[in-house]
Specification:
2 copies of one chain form a homodimer. By secondary structure, the first copy, chain A, is mostly helical. In chain A, 66% of the residues lie in helices and 3% in strands. The first copy, chain A, contains 20 helices and 3 strands. The radius of gyration of chain A is 23 Å and the shape is globular. The N and C termini of chain A lie far apart (63 Å).
Chain lengths: 496, 496
């Protein structure tokens, strides 16, 4: 057996452990009885510990070196070996003591955050967040040394391989220069047009679920390799060949669950479309969180809030819920699904104001990791940013800097991927339409095949063969930029 | 850290892995999409492989020896160390090659069995079953050498620690001497009495489920540490603090699902009642499959098919399903739930004829492991036994020797635990009534507290502190025997 072949065996074991943890994590958020939380925490900690042991074992390092020396690999195996090395470097860079200290600090900090958010009590969280930040800075330092990167880039690289501040900074600077004006213009235009009529409930949960399943099937979700269930916070998780998405139903408002299902289905299509032969190997993984988010946003924002899709959706909704009248006409539905309204909460934001939330968080987290912003000064800096970017005065930290779990969880470097994903989604959707001019018409007929086929060929089926940049260049003819996103927002919110 | 303390850490990791596998196994039988079967198989194989590696590592052996040399342990830790040694001996006795060969042979054989059973085609299964048997004989030999036992006893010891053929043979010989006559007498008496009136459906699934949950709660099932779901074959599985039982609903007949829920709740009460402080350690495990089965049977057969319980159940059923009339009176319900009728299928058998199915399988599997019965001769021997023991002529192997998955799965040594459990259940129920004379009256009022409290103190909370024999002696004043079971059957089926 070659060294490379023995690595494939080792990494397919790691994939199995990661799949097991994925299902256990899904179960914890959907069905698990409360009293099992501690035991489940132990199970997941043991699985993650075993995976880390296998990945960082001296034998892994030796076999990697041997396989790299062997050489002679074809394209996919060569890319796979490269991804194996990447995974090894990230894992081995951080001493075990630091991993464990960080894991303990995060557990405590997440627990305190839940109470601190509920009580809008930032000072209660502050010492725990400071400890998490201290350890993340150490981790960034350690990974940075191993990867030859500065600490923030090293953390970012864990979520979006190859992404760098040097790429993000000009993109975000450009967004900052025109987004506030575009939001203002969209709001003015919206105020001048007809008001959006509300859709009056109640909407039975089972009808909502059936509708969600119908649309998932239309989008191409493979029910033999996945499920739709309920959780407090919607997500896409599970394992290879077993992609589990969730939503949360509200009888008074079906749109949020429905758009959530469409969003998570976008993630699921990526997972289900990964290259079959490589699905248990690193090169068969999704390329990174920015591209993953681009796949949920291309479905939810680009395709499913388009005028074309809404004209298909209208009759489905009227039939499913047995309603009719002006509120249920496509024009009104489109108005409802493209409303622009600055708000405090990131996860509730529309696609035009969402990037402002990210610009702010990116600015703050790079400063925190760089040592230029102390945890004690975070609320003030957050609130100032909300005034600058969205013109809002934050009334308390609950809807301010306490709203997200990311920082208390130690996920520094994650936030920018949301907006990089939005940029990529616009750029990919434009390229898909250029390649398949019939695409918008197909959406109006509920036919997602052209979009799905294009995404499968250009994104999903490519796994981690190329870098994000090379993948985008290949699919769209250009590196990641803001032009397509700006053009999309202008057309949808300012155009004819 | 003492050697013993480091073993506790090691075995609590093993408990976490086993819990993870338990939840993944549950999911595979309840919710998993079909297309995930292969990936799930890989996940479970990797987890079992890792657990086996940890358990049989040279470090485990060294630490066991060191802890045994240290000595000075109190009662529970000493018993825990004894159980650790037992687990180690069982696992380390079988060479890794043999474990893997057996696992592969079992996978193939189970697959072929499904088709062979469907087509009543024993010759199709025969070569696969022969291979599984050959490997089980090797495993029995290997374990026997390590444990100082003959091969069948070594296999049996894996399911029911300490149980031996020398204990079973006289018990089963005694059963064989009187059971056929008792069945005949019960049948005669039944034929002379009024016929049992059928309960006419349909019975909505959700009502059945709510009724099951109501009774589970009454029995003392802790919903904060468990769930009730649906699967093709009912079982009790899951993990520590997360006990998952399943049933299958039939709108035409609620009784089977209901009795199934009561049966599995008996298993679940054992799992939920294990000693809290030791629940992640070997000594905190259930004592073995015979005692486990005794706990399901004491609930289903002893308690819930008693006249007392049925008098409580009647009104619940009438209210739940909105029915009334003579079929719904306790006398008729009791007749329905205590019908004796020889049949081909073990899992459908009543408590009087059930042991006959086990006597036959025990006779055949000891002969197969002993080399005295070839796989090719199994159908003939099986059908001859059915004639002898139950007076039935088997029409084809689908309802004959192909009906159970145990042998194709390599589970030789498991069958006797069903009937040992039935004997233990009768003996324990008699002792519980002697200790708590109010117990039958409480059952008539739907109050399970006295029974549950007694079982918790005498069985559940004892974990694996004592041997099965010592536990039964302590709880009932006698080793396992047939007297209580015989007295129970005579009272219920031949008595006033």
């Amino acid at each position: 057996m070659t060294a490379y072949a023995s690595l494939e065996t080792r990494f397919s074991r790691l994939s199995a452990i990661s799949g097991a943890a994925g299902i256990l994590g899904w179960d914890a958020q959907t069905l698990m009885p409360d009293g099992a939380a501690e035991a489940r925490g132990d199970q997941l900690a043991v699985l993650h510990g075993l995976a880390h042991e296998i990945l960082t074992a001296p034998e892994t390092a030796d076999t990697l070196a041997a396989a790299e020396a062997e050489g002679g690999l074809e394209t996919w195996p060569a890319a796979n070996l490269h991804e194996m090395r990447r995974a090894y470097l990230h894992a081995a860079a951080v001493p075990r003591d630091l991993v464990e200290a960080s894991s303990r600090a995060v557990s405590r900090s997440e627990m305190v955050w839940r109470e601190a958010r509920r009580d809008a009590d930032f000072p209660r969280l502050a010492p725990h967040l400071a400890e998490v930040l201290r350890l993340q800075r150490e981790i960034g330092q350690a990974k940075g040394t191993a990867l030859g990167l500065d600490p923030y880039d090293a953390l970012l690289d864990g979520y979006d391989p190859g992404m760098r501040r040097a790429v993000i900074d000009p993109l975000f600077a450009d967004l900052t220069s025109w987004l506030p004006d575009l939001i203002a213009a969209a709001r003015t235009r919206q105020a001048e047009g007809p008001a959006a009529l509300p859709l009056d409930g109640p909407f039975p949960v089972d009808t909502q679920r059936q509708l969600g399943l119908t649309l998932m099937r239309a989008l191409g979700f493979d029910e033999a390799r996945g499920r739709l269930d309920i959780s407090l916070h919607p997500f896409c998780g599970g394992a290879t060949d077993d992609v589990r998405i969730t939503t949360r139903y509200d009888e008074a408002d079906f749109s949020r669950a429905l758009m959530g299902v469409l969003h998570e289905t976008g993630h699921a299509l990526y997972e289900q479309g990964r290259p079959t032969a490589w699905r248990h190997q690193p090169v068969g993984s999704a390329r990174g969180m920015s591209l993953h988010e681009s796949q949920s946003l291309i479905i939810e924002m680009q395709a499913c809030r388009s005028r074309e899709f809404v004209s298909y959706l209208g009759p489905l909704l009227r039939e499913a819920f047995g309603r009719s009248g002006p509120a249920w006409e496509p024009d009104n539905l489109f108005r409802l699904y493209t409303r622009v309204e600055p708000g405090f909460i990131r996860v509730d934001a529309d696609e035009a104001t969402y990037p402002a939330h990210i610009l702010l968080r990116y600015r703050l987290e790079t400063a925190m990791i760089g040592g230029d912003l102390a945890v004690a000064d975070l609320p003030g800096a957050f609130n100032e940013g909300m005034r600058d970017l969205l013109g809002l005065t934050v009334p308390d930290d609950r809807v301010g800097c306490l709203q997200d779990i990311h920082w208390p969880s130690g996920a520094f470097g994650y936030f920018p991927t949301y907006t990089l994903g939005a940029l990529a989604a616009a750029q990919l959707f434009r390229a898909a339409k250029a390649a398949e001019p019939a695409l918008p018409g197909c959406l109006a007929a509920g036919d997602f095949a052209p979009l799905r086929t294009w995404l499968r060929a250009n994104i999903h089926g490519q796994g981690s063969l190329l870098t994000t940049d090379a993948l985008l260049e290949r699919a769209t003819g250009a590196p990641l930029g803001t032009a397509a996103f700006r053009a999309h927002l202008e057309a949808r919110y300012l155009g004819g």
